[in-house]
Automatic annotation (TrEMBL):
Gene designation per UniProt: aroF
Alphabetized UniProt keyword annotations: Transferase
Name this protein carries in UniProt: 3-deoxy-7-phosphoheptulonate synthase
Species this protein is from: Macrococcus brunensis
InterPro entries (alphabetical): Aldolase_TIM (IPR013785), Chorismate_II_sf (IPR036263), Chorismate_mutase_GmP-bac (IPR010954), Class-I_DAHP_synthase (IPR052899), CM_dom_sf (IPR036979), CM_II_prokaryot (IPR002701), DAHP1/KDSA (IPR006218), DAHP_syn_2 (IPR006268)
Biological-process GO terms, alphabetical: aromatic amino acid family biosynthetic process; chorismate metabolic process
Length: 357
């Protein structure tokens, strides 16, 4: 063996010895972490780190300079603190850490959200009349759709705007379920309404304006129907996830997340669709994620490419508004597709959907 090879062999032995010591150090650090948790003291203790660094510098005989030793040990301390923090971390029920496999929200009519297929939730902004909803429902059934949306309780910016038909609206929606077998998706704005609405609705929607209405979220958690939770107008992804956790921690794990755009300085669209929220939610939680292309863009001319983008980044489906005569719609008149526009939108997005099967 040459001198160089001998030295290299020795270096490898030292590497393994260091690794062994690091492993032992990590195990001891974890035990210290448990003691700290029991005692309720902070995991990170800068004073203690400083003392240990000073001891090491005192003992340092070279050849490494004091600063190099400091740096190396600081990295080791950091890794140990992270180990201690990781064992203290409480995982959310909605997190993938807690449940690695996807949640699939299934319905008696065969629809499944969050599984292999991509799904669509189309329908008018508001329920206005039997005829209006029926025109859309008939079209959806003919297209093989499994859901229809429509608001009966409308959270409007102005108190003078149409507030929805209330229970009458839900009754109209229920007729569509009976006639066409469509699952009914409709918004609830009052915690006291879940019980009444339960006889009409298959998916309770919680709208953007109520994403942090914690009493509503708690009641949604007590329901045994799926909840479609929309992201708040100015909610961070973390806040959105915590809102879902409110529902889950109150007993309901059937949650569908819906990114619907957030408020930014940009005026070219109604809201700014946070497309990156989709893969972030898919990675961080086990819940299905939809993208609402109507309320995010507010623009019919870009809904199709945006909907395609949503599917491309991993959304489990798309929501969009369709009205037989948008010009006279009582809400969101400017952005609902008419049936003809919907025909071409649907043909294209359904083609895109098949790319992912
Ligand atoms: C809706 O979907 O009917 C609605 C009001 O949307 P958002 O809560 O996202 O504004
Ligand atoms: Mn709307």
């Amino acid at each position: 063996m040459t001198e160089l090879n001998q030295l290299r062999t020795r270096i490898e032995e030292i590497n393994f010895a260091i690794l062994e010591l690091l492993t032992e150090r990590g195990e001891v650090a974890k035990k210290i972490g448990q003691e700290k948790i029991k005692a309720g003291t902070d995991i990170y203790d800068p004073q203690r780190e400083k003392e240990m660094l000073n001891q090491l510098i005192e003992q340092n005989k070279g050849p490494y300079d004091d600063n190099v030793i400091k740096q190396l040990f600081k990295e080791i301390f950091k890794a140990s603190t992270e180990l201690q923090q990781a064992q203290n971390e409480k995982h959310l029920l909605v997190s993938r850490k807690m449940k690695p496999e996807d949640t699939i929200v299934s319905f008696p009519n065969g629809a499944a959200v969050g599984g292999q297929d991509k799904i669509f939730v189309f329908g008018p902004c508001s329920v206005e009349s039997y005829e209006q909803v029926d025109a859309v429902a008939r079209d959806l059934a003919a297209k093989g759709q499994k859901f229809i949306r429509g608001g009966a309780f409308k959270p409007r910016t102005s108190p003078y705007d149409f507030q929805g038909l209330g229970e009458e609206g839900l009754k109209i929606l229920k007729e569509m379920n009976k006639k066409y077998g469509l699952n009914i998706v409709s918004e609830i704005v009052n915690p006291a309404h879940f019980e009444m609405a339960d006889q009409y609705v298959d998916v309770f929607q919680i709208g953007a304006r109520n994403m942090q209405n914690f009493e509503l979220l708690k009641e949604a958690g007590k329901s045994n129907k799926p909840i479609l939770l929309k992201r708040g107008l100015a909610a961070t992804i973390e806040e959105f996830i915590y809102a879902a956790e409110y529902i889950h921690s109150n007993g309901n794990s059937q949650i569908i997340m819906c990114e619907r755009g957030i408020r930014t300085y940009e005026k070219a669209t109604r809201n700014t669709l946070d497309i990156s929220a989709v893969p972030i939610l898919k990675q961080g939680t086990h819940l299905p994620v939809l993208v609402d292309v109507t309320h995010s863009t507010g623009r019919k001319d870009i809904m199709l490419p945006v909907a395609k983008a949503a599917l491309a980044v991993g959304a489990d489906g798309v929501m969009a508004e369709v009205h037989p005569d948008p010009a006279v719609a009582l809400s969101d008149a400017g952005q609902q597709m008419d049936l003809q526009e919907f025909d071409s939108f649907f043909a294209e997005i359904d083609k895109a959907r098949q790319l992912y099967l």
